[in-house]
Structures are given as C-alpha cells and as structure tokens.
Design a protein that fits this description.
By secondary structure, this protein is an alpha/beta fold. Helices cover about 35% and strands about 20% of the residues. It folds into 2 domains: about 100 residues; about 140 residues, 3-Layer(aba) Sandwich (Rossmann fold), CATH 3.40.50.720. It is elongated.
Length: about 270
C-alpha cells in the first residue's frame, strides 16, 4: 500500500447551482486503510520493542493489508518470509520479502524467531501449524472486535492457535473502538466511512453525503485485479453536498482516532 498522497487543490466544485457546493474529502479510502493497518503494525512493533525482541527471521502468514504492513517494516531489520494463498497480493510487498503460496513450500526444518498469523477467520489449520517449528515469539491477530456477535466469537480460533506453540512469548493482536463485527482492516475502514458520512449529514446546511463504499475485497480476491483494487481505493472517502463549508477530513480523523490496537497477553 502507498503512503498518503498530497491532497489535491480542487476539493470543492459547484453543485447543481452555484448555491450548492460539492466537497470532496482530501482523505482517500486508501489513506484510511493505511492508517488502520499502521495501528496494528505499530502495536506489534511496540510489543517487540518492550520485550527487547529483535527477530532476524520472521514468518508472516497472511499478506492482505496488515500482514503486508508488518512485513514491509520488519524486512528492514532482518529476513522476512510471507505465506499467502492469493498470489496477487505479492504486489503489496517489498521486493526484499520472500513470498510463498503455501506453508508446505517452507522447509520443515526451517526455524523462525517470530511468527505472525494475520489470517483471522478460517486461517491457519492445525495441520499447517504442525509443519512449523515453535518460534520464540508467536502473535496471532484476533478477528473479533468490540461488536462481534456470538456466531463470530464461536468460530474464532485465536486461543487455540496461541496454545498450539509452546513459545516463550505469545500474544494476540486485538483491535477495537468502533463496535465493528470484526477487527478486519477493511471492516474498520468501511465503518469509519459510514460513521463519518452519518456525522456529516447532521451538520447544518448539508443536503446529503455519500461515502466511497464498495466491495473492494471482491475486486482483489474474486476478480484478482490488484491494479483495479489500488485504483478504486484512491477515491475520496467522503463527498458532501452542502450550502456552506464543511470539513469532512476532520470528521474522518476523529473516527479514525477511536480505533485502538494492542497486544493482549494472557
């Protein structure tokens, strides 16, 4: 994922008449995704730093958004291998990261200092974990959040995965703050846009507001079109029709700041 782009200068244009203005957020969907993924990445880095852990060989299972962020940072400090069943997500990774399509492509004798599982719901199986040697540190992203229903909580296998390895350091990446059903980066990004759109609607003089909601994951995982995915998420996150000036970016930022990611240690 790219870094935040320089805002365009033409964020306001006339509406149907000169009385009405159309206001585009400078914040794009991509900016929101990057910010949330950074929260998760920074939680991992903070945990490693606090425990004086400096992994030289890292394995990350799952590339989509969070995994890529973590991989692209840790590869500056050591060797990083990423495993993902979707080959198209390789384009999110730094060229120095080693990419594999399956756990079984790894040498069963290979050891890693750190393993990070970001696969969430329906991810790593016990058979796949049996192919891996216990690392010094094992972190798994918990797919549940503060708004998860009982069905989602029931299928969450984070605890079982954490108990599988007898690792000296284990923890779960837990993200909350918007009462979302899951902690997925895209789930959180969509909630930020929805909440921001509704908040904008309550501002005086606003006729209506729309957010750039789309089934982005289908573009990436069904159409397998990475270029289209990256282009689509560069849209302004919020567009507002208003009689007066409105700052959608400050509202988006406020909603983003409600999100908090941390490492839970039992």
């Amino acid at each position: 994922m790219k870094n935040k782009k320089t805002p365009k200068s033409d964020q306001i244009e006339p509406g149907i008449t000169s009385t009405v203005k159309t206001i585009f957020s400078k914040t794009t969907v991509e900016d929101i995704i990057n910010t949330i993924a950074d929260y998760k990445k920074n939680a991992v880095l903070k945990y490693l730093s606090a425990n004086n852990i400096q992994p030289s060989h890292t394995l990350i299972v799952g590339t989509y958004l969070t995994g890529a962020k973590i991989a692209n940072d840790l590869v500056k400090r050591g060797h990083v291998t990423v495993v993902d069943i979707h080959p198209q997500v390789k384009s999110f990774l730094d060229s120095s990261v080693t990419f594999k399509n399956s756990i079984y492509e790894l040498n069963i004798q290979q050891t890693f200092d750190l393993i990070v599982d970001t696969t969430g719901l329906g991810g790593l199986s016990s058979e796949e974990m049996n192919h891996l040697k216990a690392p010094e540190v094992f972190l798994a992203e918990n797919p549940t959040s503060d708004g998860s229903d009982e069905m989602i909580k029931k299928i969450d296998a984070t605890k079982n995965r954490l108990e599988y390895f007898n690792a000296p350091f284990i923890g779960q990446i837990f993200t909350e703050g918007l009462n979302t059903k899951t902690s997925g980066t895209m789930s959180l990004a969509v909630e930020v846009m929805k909440n921001s759109m509704h908040e904008v609607l309550h501002k005086e003089g606003v006729l209506y507001s729309v957010s750039s909601l789309d089934f982005y994951e289908r573009i990436l995982f069904q159409e397998k079109d990475t270029a289209k995915f990256l282009k689509t998420i560069q849209r302004p996150a919020i567009v507002v029709s208003s009689l007066g000036k409105i700052d959608p970016d400050s509202i988006i930022e406020k909603n983003l700041k409600k999100i908090y990611s941390k490492i839970l240690v039992e």
